[in-house]
Amino acid sequence: MLINSALYDDGRIVAEPGLDGLSEALQSQSGFVWIALKDPTDDELGRLERELNLPALAVEDARKGHQRPKLEEYGDMLFAAMHLIEAGPEGEGELEVGEVHVFVGPRFVVSVRHRSAQGFLGVRGRAEREPELLRQGPGFVFYALMDAVVDRYFPHMDAIEAELEKLESTMFQPRQDRQAVVQQLFGLKQRLATLRHAVTPLLEVSAKLHGGRVPVVCKAMQDYFRDVYDHLLRIQASLDAARETIIAATQVNLTLVTIDESLVTKRLAAWAAIFAASTALAGIWGMNFEGMPELKWAWGYPMALAVIALVSGALYWRFRRLKWL
């Protein structure tokens, strides 16, 4: 589906050519064209391929989707794939992954969005408010799209860090549901992995766009792409720190589970010892041998109960001092 199309000249929009007749529009006027598509049909991609002479292999990637973030050069054209991360259904705490594929040529930019509700109208509005940068051509539009994609990673990273801090603050509370904590930690680890799959390859992409050999279409925007690279480095560092924290928190939680089980075992062993002593004494006096000195004594039964209570009390006091009870 066509979302927007515009022909820009000297930083200003001069026409909205649509998908048909793009080649004629570019031949008759100077400037460049910016086309935005969402979940396009094969027919729409085919028309763009013919009008703009797009690389067939890149078009095939854009048609199929499910690409790893990457940057490919086809002569004076670029094809980039980036992941769009957004929150899943409310309450599930999962991340959903969409994609945006960007074709960049000397006189065009085509963005193809798949499986994502996040649009780029804000990016277009920002670019049109800065005509001095829009005059830089397709390279600036490519930067603006990449910058928007990367900036949308930060809220997800902040949310993960906030949840992790909350878990850490409650982890040592008594009567904590350890299984629920481990499940939450595992969920956070999955979300980190989703972000990592988007960020790490994009670091390689942005590194190719500043310093050293840079594609011609992006040469004037090297400083801006360096800024995107710095943002990705910050996210990568946060991902690494959060991952280490999750590993440590999981180990601590499992240790706490072992400690809790040990305390329960100690309590059971202590009560078992108390009842074992009482049972042993009761068994001795319950044998009813004729020769037992206290058998016919009027105070024999109370004395037996007193001895059992005294032994049980002594064991209970001892286990309390050992903090088994």
Automatic annotation (TrEMBL):
Membrane topology: Multi-pass membrane protein
UniProt xrefs under InterPro entries: CorA_cytoplasmic_dom, CorA_TM1_TM2, MgTranspt_CorA/ZnTranspt_ZntB
Similarity field: Belongs to the CorA metal ion transporter (MIT) (TC 1.A.35) family.
GO MF annotations in UniProt: cobalt ion binding; cobalt ion transmembrane transporter activity; magnesium ion binding; magnesium ion transmembrane transporter activity
Keywords: Cell membrane, Ion transport, Magnesium, Membrane, Transmembrane, Transmembrane helix, Transport
GO cellular component entries: plasma membrane
Lineage: Bacteria, Pseudomonadati, Pseudomonadota, Betaproteobacteria, Burkholderiales
Protein name as annotated: Magnesium transporter
Native species: Roseateles puraquae
